[in-house]
Amino acid sequence: MPPHRRDGFLLAAACFLIGITFGVFADSSGLGLGQASVLSVFTFTGASQFALVSVVAGGGTTAAAVGGALL
Questions:
Q1: What are the boundaries of each domain within the chain?
Q2: Is 0.70 topped by the overall pTM?
Q3: Cα end-to-end distance, the chain, whole Å
Q4: Is residue 71's pLDDT more than 80?
Q5: Is 31 left (phi over 0), alpha (psi -120 to 50) or beta?
Q6: For residue 56, what are the contacts with CB-CB under 8 A and spacing of at least 6?
Q7: Alpha-carbon distance 43 to 38, whole Å?
Q8: Residues with Cβ < 8 Å from 52, sequence gap 6 or more?
Q9: CA pair distance 50, 8, nearest whole angstrom
C-alpha cells in the first residue's frame, strides 16, 4: 500500500473516532441529530464543538456557548 493511502486511512480512522465520541457526547447532553450535524458542519475544530456542548449541557446561554467555542 502506498504511504499516502496508508496516511489517509490513519487520518480517516482518527476523524471517525473523534466524530463518534462527539456524537455520543452530544446525544447524552440532549442535542438532537440535526443540531449535532449542523454544529459539525459549521464548527472548524473539535475542541470548540465539545466546549459548546459542555456549556449548553451545563445550562449556559447561547452567547456563553458561542463565546466559549470562539476562544
A1: 3-70
A2: yes
A3: 40
A4: no
A5: beta
A6: 29, 30, 31, 62, 65
A7: 8
A8: 39, 43, 65, 66, 68, 69
A9: 24
